Structures are given as structure tokens and as C-alpha cells.
Amino acid sequence: MKDKLRWIPPVHDLQNKDRFQWLKEELGNESLLTDWFRAEIKMLREGWLQESGPDLSSREEVETYLFQQVSDRLHAFGESRLKRVINASGTILHTNLGRANMSTEAVKKAGEAAAGYSSLEYDIASGRRGSRHDILEDLIQTVTGAEAAMVVNNNAAAVYMVLKALAETKEVIVSRGQLVEIGGSFRVSSIMEESGAKLVEVGTTNKTHRSDYERAVGPDTAMLMKVHTSNFKTIGFTEEVPLSKLTEVAAEQQQEMIVYEDLGSGALYDFKEHGIGSEPTVKEALATGADLVTFSGDKLLGGPQAGIIAGRKKWIDRLKKHQLARVLRVDKMTIAALEETLKAYAGNRETEIPAVRMVLETKEEVKERAETFLDSLQLLTWEAAVEDEYSRVGGGTMPEVELPTAVAAITPSTVSAEEAAACLRTYSDPPIAVRVKNEKILVDMRTLTEEEMKVTAQALSRIEKMNQQQ
């Protein structure tokens, strides 16, 4: 062991090697490079002291090993942490893959905002300071019918801000069946506790009646809250109180009471007109009498990550003046992308938004593209066929909805379907995410662009050949 430890060179010896200078030129940061060598030396020493680590038999091998380890670090350091991924899974708002794809115009405007200065908080007419709240408010009013609106960095932040600013130390009445936990361990009850609002649960998991709310109202009640249950849905022997009845309960009270609905999914387009799901639109919720609604920008709305708060001007004005308005504000790129997304709705150009277009695409349209994809495949032994399947909306939205779709079902002959799917993720650039079912790879055309279809077909051919050669 002592002989092995003697083989480990000091850092200054390594710094005098030509290979160190080459790595330094590539990285451009000698201090960081030296830290990496120190870290690798430390791990090697500790490994050998614990009778583990690499099997090396000379000082020269140790030196080669250390340079290789640091070279690998340098390669990994240069790679993008946030990688583009081709989504062939058929889940449109795939949370793990970044949810909604933005429209071409939204992406363009976000890039322009990032590349230069803008009127983010500058009133061009007066030459004085302006407010970023004003940039999008009129557009949100147009597409939702709200009196006023503001934007924060995501919908969880919007929920927290509404409760903190308008109901801290006060009671908020919520149906027990709506106290759900969604992605990332986000719990409605926990966020309410953090806000300082006092949770008052009514009803049961499957049934809540109007009378439950009426009995729960007290002198400290500030809000009746209705929560979108995201990817959780109770079916069967159920009942919930519609928003219209909550507004009646609030109107009958002697005290002022806010009716607030967290819509979550942010549907501005009425998918119900196409027989797809039962998501209420933001406009419907406000027209029904909600004082405030909050919803996401990157779900069914199809824009960037954001939380939108819309409703009565009285409450929105209070929110704008709250300290959290600065803590939770959005940046110029988000505002630019959201502006273009909202303009598409205002101009009845919703199908320019990828998320909307993907949800509305018919099975026949998808099947036609699947057949084109199949014709482009150049497989030797793997079998492929077009099969009927179902896509998901995803993102905690419309959990009960199955969108009829067509997939390219590929049966690998040289490896398992799981192994082939892993190869598509790890050996393709960009990585490709697919579904695996019944020992087949399912490539769902609903979430693929024409260009991505070509890349996926080429990747499948390469991976088949790679596995045959092994």
C-alpha cells in the first residue's frame, strides 16, 4: 500500500506536464483545472487506503489515470447540462421534459429580449420608470375577460401569493377532496400553511355539499377556495360544489369574502368543443363569478413557465403592491414569450401554439404521419408496424383523457425493448424518449415534428446496426 501511495505525484509535478498545459488551454481556467487534479488525487488516495480504487501498478500508470480522469471531467464540463430531448412518448405536456413547447414566434421574441435591451420597466413616452406588470395586463384582460391581471414565476407562486397577501391569519375554506399533492411533493395544504392562511377543510374525500361551506363560514373567513386537482381524479360516488354555488354562498354573507379558483392547467382554448376533456376555461371561471383565478403559463396555455393571476381589479391592485410581487416577478424573456402566446389567442391563431395543435390533432392525421415515418425506416431485422394507441395530455392536466393516436411499434430482435429504449436515450444526439409496451418501442407521432421524425428514424437504424455488431 505504501508503494502505491508513493506513486501518486504531487500536483505541481502534473502542472509541469505538457498534457496539463493542453488541458489548461482547452478549459481556460488553471485554478479550476488544478482543483480537479487535487480532487482526483484525493479520491485515488482514499480509495487505496480503503483497499479499493483502480488497479494501477506504476507511477506512470497513475499519472495516465489522473490525466484521463480530469480529461473526462473536462469533457463532461463542456457538455450542456440542459439537453434538448426529442419527445416521442406521446405525452404532450411532459413535466420531466419541460412541459409545453412554445410557438416559433414566442421563441423568436424571447431570443430578441435576451439579446438586447428592452422596455421592461421603462416608459418610452415619458422616459421614466415603468412597470413590468403593465406589459401583459391588457392582453390577459382580452383573452380572459378579467378586470385586471398580473404574472408571477409559476402557478405554485401564484397560489402562495394570493393566500399570503389576501388571507394571512384568516380562514380559507377548501373541500377535503381538493387537498391534493401534485408533482414535486407540492401539497395544497402545505402551501396554505406556509402562507399563514388557516385551512378549514369541509366535506369528505369524495363528497362535498354546499351546506358544508355554509356551516364552515365564520367571522374570520376570508376566502372560499376551489382547487384544480391536477393528475388526481375521483370517480364514482362523488359530488363537488360548482363555482357558481360558491359565489352564491359568498354573496349571502354579511362580510366581504373572496371566491378564488386555482385552475392550474390554464385552458384559454375550449377543448370541450371538440369533445376533449372537461377543463373549464379561464374565461368561464371569471364569468361564473370567481373574484380571482390562477393558472399556469406552460400547461394548456402553451407558453413559458409562469403563473397568471386574473380577476377583480381591487384584489389584483393589492397583489401588485405586496412585497412578494418583486420576489416572484418574471424576467424579460418570459414576458416576451408569453406576450406572443397571448397574442395568438387574441388573434384566434391558437393552432400556432404547439400544445394546442397537438391536443387537437386527429387520429387520422397522426396515422398518416406514422405511415410516412414507417416508410422512412431502414431496419434490417427489427420489425415495425403502425398500431393504434392513446396519447396523454400530461402535466397534471386532463388525467381522464385518452387521445386516440397512431404509433410506430418497433420490435427489436437483437435486444429487449427496454434496452433499445435506453440506447435511444443514451446514444442518440439529441436523446429520444419513447414508450415501451409489450416488448415494443412505441414512437408516437403526436409529439414529433417532421424534422424530429427524420432524426428518430435515423437513430433507430444506427442503434439496430450497433446492437447487431456487438
Structure description:
With 470 residues, this protein is an alpha/beta fold. The protein has 19 helices and 18 strands. The chain has a seven-stranded mixed β-sheet with strand order 5-13-12-11-10-6-9, with helices on both faces. A five-stranded mixed β-sheet has the order 2-14-15-18-17. The protein has a two-stranded parallel sheet with strand order 1-16. A hairpin with a 2-residue loop joins strand 17 and strand 18 (440-444). It is globular. The model has no long low-confidence stretch (mean pLDDT 93).
Biggest β-sheet strands, sense, barrel: 7 strands, mixed
How many strands? 18
Low-confidence blocks of residues: none
State mean pLDDT (0 to 100 scale). Answer: 93
Helix content: 40-55%
Strand order of the largest sheet: 5-13-12-11-10-6-9
CA radius of gyration is 28 Å
| SS strand fraction | 15-25%
The dominant shape is globular
Instruction: Figure out the total of helices.
Output: 19
Terminal residue distance: 38 Å
Structural class per helix/strand content? Answer: alpha/beta
What are the defining features of this structure?
five-stranded mixed beta sheet; 470 residues; single chain; alpha/beta; 19 helices; seven-stranded mixed beta sheet
Describe the secondary-structure layout:
Elements: H1 2-6, H2 11-15, H3 18-27, H4 30-49, H5 59-78, E1 86-87, E2 91-93, H6 104-115, E3 122-123, E4 128-129, H7 133-144, E5 148-152, H8 155-167, E6 171-175, E7 181-182, E8 186-187, H9 188-195, E9 198-202, H10 210-216, E10 221-227, H11 243-251, E11 258-264, H12 282-288, E12 292-296, E13 307-311, H13 313-321, H14 324-327, H15 332-346, H16 354-360, H17 363-376, E14 383-394, E15 403-411, H18 417-426, E16 432-433, E17 435-437, E18 440-444, H19 450-469
Parallel strand pairs: 1-16, 2-14, 6-9, 6-10, 10-11, 11-12
Antiparallel strand pairs: 3-4, 5-13, 7-8, 12-13, 14-15, 15-18, 17-18
